[in-house]
Write a structure and sequence with these properties.
By secondary structure, the chain is an alpha/beta fold. It folds into two domains: 2-173, Alpha/beta knot, CATH 3.40.1280; 189-286, Trp Operon Repressor, Chain A. It is built from eight helices and nine strands. α1 links the parallel β1 (2-7) and β2. It starts with a strand and ends with a helix.
């Protein structure tokens, strides 16, 4: 998988992609990241990339000409012009990894919220181009002509899209096959897939985890068994996979209800989940 990042601050990424899983994925050739300095596509001595907004208002706006030239240097033409199969066409054909026109994403506070579900879809694409907005934003004609998605990583405003681009690369990259040492790590975690989307148990050993199905992850513990007077929950030490699995599911529901109750509306819940959730709510009402 290849990421292309268009930015006015390519030096911002020095170090970010040189550690941990991201570095290993690049070293092993599973993922590549290319940085493109937007100022290289200007033609004045000041290398100007921004100008005042039409209609008045605060701040500056990234000009369309340098962005268009940068994108076209990557082989990306305005939408509708002949440049090979698009993302939607390839997905309809049932390909596991989408080929053809790169997926172009504008990072901005006005975009669709970036979620694990969006990350899973992006991980199926061979090439993703990320445009880092700056100042008051990007000339809207670039969005309309070239971009397939407008994405925001949260309900807050950043100084620019560089941090958001790093978040998107890290989140998507770890879902690319072969990047994680254990492929199940990308399934059994917060916002992960539901049980129905996870393969059956191996070697006849029952799983001790539920697929998150949109919920938050359960608490994790490691050695020592007792720390600062706090012992690891006994259920995790008894070796009963079914009991552990039920306890972990209950903890997922508790944590999600406490920290992100909004996630419960779209979560994949079984009848047993709903019974557990109702019991947790009754317990909270009595306290």
């Amino acid at each position: 998988m290849r990421f292309e990042i268009v930015t006015i601050f390519p030096g911002f990424f020095a170090g970010i992609f040189e550690h941990g899983i991201v570095r290993r994925a690049q070293t092993e050739g599973l993922v590549s990241v290319a940085l493109h300095d937007l100022r290289n596509y200007t033609h004045d001595r000041h290398r100007t990339v921004d100008d005042r907004p039409f209609g008045g208002g605060e701040g500056m706006v990234l000009k369309p000409e340098p962005l268009a030239e940068a994108l076209e240097s990557l082989g990306i033409l305005p939408k509708g012009r002949d440049q090979g199969p698009g993302i939607g066409d390839q997905q309809k054909q049932g390909n596991d990894r989408t080929k053809g026109r790169p997926l172009v994403i504008l990072l901005s506070a006005q975009g669709k919220r970036f979620t694990q579900a969006v990350a899973r879809e992006l991980a199926k694409v061979d090439r993703v181009v990320l445009i880092c907005g700056r100042y008051e934003g990007v000339d809207e004609r670039i969005n309309e002509l070239y971009c397939d998605m407008e994405v925001s990583i949260g309900d807050y405003v950043l100084s620019g899209g560089e941090l958001a681009a790093a978040v998107v690369v890290d989140t998507v990259m770890r879902l690319v096959p072969g990047v994680l040492g254990n492929e199940a790590s990308g399934e059994f975690e917060s916002f992960g897939v539901a049980d129905a989307e996870i393969g059956t148990d191996e070697d006849g050993v029952p799983r001790s985890q539920h697929g998150a199905g949109g919920l938050l992850d359960y608490p994790h513990y490691t050695r020592p068994a007792e720390f600062a007077g706090w012992a690891v929950p006994q259920v995790l030490l008894n070796g009963d996979h079914q009991q552990i699995r039920r306890w972990r599911r209950e903890q997922q529901l508790r944590k999600t209800l406490r920290n992100r109750p909004d996630l419960l509306e779209g979560a994949v819940l079984s009848d047993e989940d709903r019974r557990l959730l109702e019991a947790i709510r009754r317990e909270g009402a009595q306290q």
